[in-house]
Amino acid sequence: MFFPKINIFFPDCRHRATGLPGVFGTMLQIMRFNGKTALVTGGGRRLGKEIALSLARQGADIILHFFQSRQEADDTSEEIRMLGRKCRISSHNLSDADFTEKWFGNLIGENGCPDILINSASSYYEDTYTNMRVERLQESMNLHVYSPLVMIRMMYEVGRGGSVVNLLDTRVADRDPFHASYHLGKRGLSSITRDLAAEFAPVLRINAVAPGIILPPDGQGEEWIERLKSTNPLLERGTALDVSDAVLFLAEARFTTGQIIFVDGGRHLKGNAYEL
Fold first, then answer.
1. 162-167/116-119 β-pairing
2. How far apart are CA 60 and CA 32, in angstroms?
3. What is the pLDDT of residue 273?
């Protein structure tokens, strides 16, 4: 019996190598988020950018939030449009939480309620418990806790259903004495992930991803990665794509809520902060 030869293309493999799906692979690719709209806060740069692009590659239209990184947001939105997806950019200071409700309400009025919310906007403050200022702590709590809470609550009130993925830090399972305001903000975001997953079910699914050694902080180079990658059991660094893979999984995982996925090479198992 004669069996014809069939060539099967795997677009995800090609995407990992080049950043774009293969021409033939595209024909077989299943768009996991076709017809969905995703709001990605802090989506113009770093992990937010990779998450926004990954969602767009899988069929989602994107609302790209930024605050100060206008040029990076413009560049990322152009990349998204080149993938054939719609992209709108919107600026707002999420640390000014009093105006978040108005800003998010305007987005809903103009675009409809997003199907997916990715809370990735963050500021990596350097301070300690001995020199922390109340203004800096309030700024961190507004950015990392209160503004995400406002947006999640408004999605729930609309009642359409949807998925939320919050970006944490592997050190929510540990301590970070050198970035105290940031750490308390991420700890707060971790807490509301679980609390709101219970409070707003079954309308919303709310989960989180906690990255480890992925990108060096602004102002640091690759030597920072090389110095710290040995602190996780896998003795490796992660990539932005590793994080976006976890985010996309949670965004579509219909029977998963209140979960935190640590994308950190097992670092959260060791129990000591990076810099101690």
1. parallel
2. 8
3. 52
Residue ranges of the chain with per-residue pLDDT less than 50: 1-28, 276
Domain edges within the chain: 35-269
Handedness of CA 33, 113, 154, 49 (dihedral sign): positive
What type of residue sits at position 81?
A: R
Instruction: Classify domain 35-269 by CATH number.
Output: 3.40.50.720
Q: What is the DSSP letter of 50?
A: H
**DSSP assignment of 135-162, as one string?**
HHHHHHHIIIIIHHHHHHHHHHHHT--E
The stretches of the chain forming alpha helices (DSSP H) are: 11-18, 23-28, 46-57, 70-82, 100-111, 134-141, 147-158, 180-199, 222-228, 240-252
Reading the block at residue 266, the tokens are 């097992």
Question: Rounded to an integer, what distance in angstroms lies between the CA atom of residue 135 and that of residue 18?
Answer: 44
What DSSP designation does 64 have?
E
Which pLDDT score is estimated for 241? 95
Q: What is the pLDDT of residue 215?
A: 84
52 closest CA partner among 271, 235, 251: 251
Q: Can you give the pLDDT at residue 265?
A: 87
* Nearby residues of 67 by Cβ (< 8 Å), 6 or more positions away: 42, 91, 92, 93, 94, 121
